[in-house]
Amino acid sequence: MIDISRLIRETRLNNGLTQDNLASLMFVSRQTISNWENGRSLPTYENIVLLSKTLNVPLSKFSQKESASFSYNPNDNNLQKLQYTDKGLWRTGLIVLLVISVFIPYAAPISLCIILLWKDKVKPTWFRRSFYFIVLLTGLEIIILLTVIGYFMFS
Questions:
Q1: Do 103 and 128 have their domain in common?
Q2: CA angle, residues 74, 65, 90, in degrees to nearest 5
Q3: Alpha-carbon distance 29 to 21, whole Å?
């Protein structure tokens, strides 16, 4: 079984790169490279693609199931609690964002951008409902803004 962290370290060393060199090529910090190599964190998909290109390693090396350094057990209660808590936190953040958008004038466009970033973090139904709500709220705020501007310009 090939460990991703070991694969990153070995290919970096084989290419004669230091952690600093690889970090500058990857547009990340040296600490991030160190965390990947020590198994404290895993690179994102985008970073894996960039690692593949930078280190001349086929992308399939990173995507093979054998290369995963951890096993997935769907019956693991700790994993299920972590997933539920994580989804719950994103859902709570989404609700707070919606409330802020309603009560703080012109926060809806910023909330719209944040919701688009959180698309993969919440359930599709929550995302869809929140997206439509924020789009409606943004439209209302634009109409109100144009009405106020028109009132002061033409009165």
A1: yes
A2: 50
A3: 10
